[in-house]
Every structure is written in C-alpha cells, then in structure tokens.
Please model this.
Amino acid sequence: MAEVVIVRDQEEAGRLAAAAIARRLAVTENPVLGVATGSTPESTYRALAAAGQRLTGVTAFALDEYVGLPAGHPESYRAVLERELVAPLGMDPDMLRTPDASPEGLHDTGERYEAAIREAGGVDVQILGIGTDGHIGFNEPGSSLASRTRIKTLTQQTREDNARFFDSVDDVPIHCVTQGLGTIRDARHLVLLAFGEGKAEAVAAAVEGPVSSGVPGSLIQLHPSVTVLVDEAAGSRLAHADYYRLAYANKPSWQAL
Ligand code: PGA
Model:
C-alpha cells in the first residue's frame, strides 16, 4: 500500500517531498523527474529551491498541457513550469519536456511523448496532485487505467477548479494532452500531494476506495512505491488515518520516504 503521511501543512509536505526527490535524484544517473502543475506542487518546488537543490542534468516531463492556448501563454503548463521550476532550480529549459499541444503536432503528440519518456529511461519520481473529481494528470473519471499519453476533454468541474488561473471559466481550454494512467504507473516512484478539505473525498477514494477508472487516482493502489502527503483537511476522510499515523511514528530509519 501507499505510505500515507498526514502533515501539518503544505510547507511540511513540500519539505518531505523535496527531501525524497533529492535523495532519489542523488543516487540516479541521468535522473528523470515527472512534474505537475497547479497549486499543489508549489510548496515542493519552493522547498527544493530553499534547500539549494539544483536540477542541473535533470530531465523533467510534465504530466499534461492545455490544447488551444497560444504559444507562450502564461498559463500554458510549459510557461508555468519555466517560471516555477526551470528558473528557480537552475534547470536547462531544453531538458523540460511538455506535450506538444500545437495544432500541427496534435495528431501524433501522444506517441512522440511516450517515445521521449522511454528514450530518457523512464520517470524516476513522479509528482502528482489530485483533482476534486479524482483525476491525476488530466485523466478524468472514466479514463482507462491502461491509458497512454493522448488528447482528453476536461470536465466542467476541472475547468471551474482551474478558472482561478484565467480571467473566466470560459477562457479555460476544453482540451488537453495528458500522460495516461498507464504512463503514470510506469514511473518508478509516485509522490501524491493534496491539501484542503476540497480534496478530502478524492483522497479517501483514491487511497482506500475500490480501484476504478471512476476514480483515476485509485491507480496508486496498483503501484508498488507510492508516498501520499496530505494535510489534516485533505486527510480528514481517511478511514485508517490512525493507522497511517502509527506507521509513520514508527517508521524504521532504513525505510526511505
Ligand atoms: P491543484 O490541482 O493542484 O491546482 O489543486 C490538482 C490537479 O488538478 O491535479
């Protein structure tokens, strides 16, 4: 099962995630990091920067990208990651890979992205948020657990959740290119973070509910190496919270996060 750690706040989660990432990158040749966007991973990127971590020599693959935004749009995930990851962590911008969502590239964007991940040796650590509807990446409910990188239609819920980054919900694209659930499952380690009451139901369903395409986040139950970092609010619907606290309080020193 996933290691579930209930932390005080986003900053503590960010520090734990950053430490776990740094440890894995340090022992990996040509490391590959899977990166997420949205509010959730921000404290992890801040903590990596605060720890003086440089991502020189690291290749990063984004989970997803909007379709239909003009190149260089500040809310395109490429632009977000250039601001929040590449610049503060000293990454080579050419080593940040995002799915090609240009009109010319869409027809085979999924195949090309999958090939690029394979050629880089696969993702060592994948950072994940979870949507209020249970999505990971932009794999909305109903996504095949075996899906690969492809074009998806966003749910109205996701567009409303992401409207805060745009002038209005109508400006949020309807389509995206996202790594599939099968793609995410291939990463060697998953770190899923979630904060706030609004995520509580999705977190409980993903961690403890049945494995189902209806809750794409439940894919984590099929993965042998997963860390889930949640604040009290996001963890408030977990039936086995006491057990997770007991396990973490008694975590053997040899067991890495
Ligand atoms: P958020 O989104 O980090 O902005 O809450 C998470 C997600 O949709 O995966």
Residues 3-249 form a domain with the Rossmann fold fold (CATH 3.40.50.1360). The mean pLDDT is 97.
